[in-house]
Amino acid sequence: MTTLNVMRWGDRGAAKTVVALHGITANGGAMTEPARVLAGRGWQLIAPDMRGHGESTRADGDFSFDSLLADFKANVPTEPDVLIGHSFGGTLAQLGVLSGVFRPKALLLEDPVSYFADKATPKGMLDWDEANMPRDIEGLLKFNPGWSRRDAAWKVVSMQQIDFDDARAAFAGNAPWDLRPRAAEIAARQPTVWVLPEESRFVPPDDTERLKREVGERAVVVMPGVGHSIHRDATEAFVDIVEKLGAGTWFTS
Known about the structure:
This protein is an alpha/beta fold. It has eleven helices and nine strands.
């Protein structure tokens, strides 16, 4: 276990709390836009920097699922009103729920990485990112026109902070994994929504249809015109889901 750097928005005494787990090349600041909106509406949002990311240390260099989850258990609330997991954070959110590390009142999985068949695929993704991802605000906005300048600025910072060997140890080192057969089990533990782009690298159409059959149409939201970072590309729509999950009205509205 290591002490994580933890970012917070909103009043610590807020009636509702969100914990948000970022993706593999990000940091807690990736959630800045929904966090600012939610804080303005009376929520607290807590976003830890994963081990080896942001301003958190790499600790002993162990990036196993067990170590990553132990860090979260020791550093953030484990029973928030809503737990958000984006990308690889969605992997960890699912594992955290299944293992009992997290017991949220509701779960929001944003284009989560639920399946890798081998180690080569995640390694190749990170190799491409290391070689090609822009390290400046303007370059990132060309890749991601729906992002705010704050979003791009936080990404620049995260790219300066990250050690890609550590990221590969987490992303590829834990592969292969397959959480798809456990979707219904996850959804049975708390109200759960999968929010996905129309074209996802991680949840292809066949998996999307399988999800709808297993957890219900209302639990799967496919948003048009967004990329992998839905919370950045469609912040208001994303926040709407968070608020309705937190209020317990998403599945009744």
